[in-house]
Task: inverse folding
C-alpha cells in the first residue's frame, strides 16, 4: 500500500539552460509505503526517551528522597546518572550500529531502558538507583545516536536533506 508524498529536491549543479549556477528546487512526487511511515513514527519515539526520563525522575525524586533519606549529593548522583549513561551510550552508539546494524541497536537501547527501569524498581539503596539510572542512560544515549540515522535511511532518497 503506497501513498504519494511531495518533497522538494535541489538540483546540485544548477539550472544550466537558464544560466543559473545556484541549485534549483523542484517538487518531486515520491511513493512511500505506509510501512515506512509506521517505522519512522515508532523509531522517532526513541527521541522522546530522554525528556520523558528527565520528567519522571523530577517527580519521583520527591518520594525517593524521603524513602532513602537522601542528601543533596545523593539526589544529584541519581539525576546525573542517566546523563552520564547517555554520554557513554551516545559515544558507543556509532560502533554498535556499525557492527550490529541500526535495528538491533535500537532494540538493544529499548532493552537497556527496560532493564534500567527494572533495576530502579527493585532498588533497596541509592547506589542501586544510580546504577539503574546509568543503564537507562545507556539506552537513551544509544537511541539518541541511532534513531536519527535509521529514520534518515528509511526515508526515500529523493527526500533526504
Result:
Amino acid at each position: 500500500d503506497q501513498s504519494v508524498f511531495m518533497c522538494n529536491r535541489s538540483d546540485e549543479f544548477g539550472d544550466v539552460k537558464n544560466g543559473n549556477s545556484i541549485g534549483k528546487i523542484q517538487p518531486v512526487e515520491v511513493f512511500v509505503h505506509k510501512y515506512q511511515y509506521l517505522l519512522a513514527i515508532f523509531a522517532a519515539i526513541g527521541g522522546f526517551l530522554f525528556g520523558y526520563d528527565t520528567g519522571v525522575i523530577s517527580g519521583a525524586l520527591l518520594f525517593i528522597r524521603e524513602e532513602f533519606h537522601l542528601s543533596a549529593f545523593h539526589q544529584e548522583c541519581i539525576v546525573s546518572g542517566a546523563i552520564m549513561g547517555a554520554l557513554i551510550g551516545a559515544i558507543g552508539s556509532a560502533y554498535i550500529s556499525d557492527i550490529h546494524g541500526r535495528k538491533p541497536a535500537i532494540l538493544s537501547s529499548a532493552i537497556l531502558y527496560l532493564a534500567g527501569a527494572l533495576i530502579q524498581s527493585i532498588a533497596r539503596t541509592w547506589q542501586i538507583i544510580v546504577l539503574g539510572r546509568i543503564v537507562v542512560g545507556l539506552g537513551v544515549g544509544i537511541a539518541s545516536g541511532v534513531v536519527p540515522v535509521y529514520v534518515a535511511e528509511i526515508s526515500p532518497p529523493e527526500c533526504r536533506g
The beta strands are 2-10, 25-33. The longest strand covers residues 2-10. The radius of gyration is 21 Å.
